[in-house]
From TrEMBL:
Transmembrane segments: none annotated. Residues 1-169 form the N-acetyltransferase domain. Pfam families: Acetyltransf_1. It comes from the Bacteria. The keyword Acyltransferase applies. This is GNAT family N-acetyltransferase. Keywords: Acyltransferase, Transferase.
């Protein structure tokens, strides 16, 4: 597997990974994380991934010429509490559900750590879905992250629960 800078031509593949992840979540009865609709048909999500690809923050993991994971890094998302020091923020991490457990996510997180160190940054942060059974939070904790503050994002008539995690490098 190799990790390379993502390009606009990778946007459909990244959206496909997000769609497959949503299908997996729906099949597991976990619709409260990302809902039930495909990301590839959501204009807001398409624009977001295109923005990641147009800058220098999108990275993709490739296996046998196929995109099997994506990482986007940059500034913190607007809905999370700001950091009090320089940081690199993980804006997206998604992997091919068919390859679950093969270490793609770990490799992409290692790449984010390398990028942060290259920038001279000692703080790496990420946010994730903070509801459900907490499995996603536990995943990041196993990857060396520590829980910081929970937050909520108003969505229609409810609040999407989020969790910020950080790692010192």
């Amino acid at each position: 597997m190799k990790i390379r800078r993502g390009e606009l031509s990778d946007v459909p593949a990244v959206l496909g990974l997000l769609d497959k992840a949503t299908e997996w979540l729906v099949a597991a009865g976990r619709t409260d994380q990302w809902g039930t609709e495909a990301h590839s048909t959501n204009p807001r999500r398409i624009a977001q991934i295109e923005e990641f690809a147009s800058g220098d923050g999108l990275w993709v993991a490739e296996l046998d010429g196929r995109v099997v994971g994506a990482l986007a890094v940059g500034d913190a998302m607007s809905y999370v509490p700001p950091a009090t020091e320089a940081e690199l923020y993980i804006r997206l991490l998604v992997t091919d559900r068919a390859l679950q457990g093969s270490g793609i996510g770990t490799d992409l997180l290692d790449h984010a750590r390398m990028l942060a160190r290259g920038l001279g940054v000692e703080l790496l942060r990420v946010d994730c879905f903070g509801g459900g059974d907490g499995a996603l939070i536990r995943y990041y904790e196993k990857q060396g992250f520590t829980r910081a503050e929970p937050f909520g994002v108003p969505v229609s008539d409810s609040v999407w629960p989020g969790q910020v995690l950080f790692q010192r490098l």
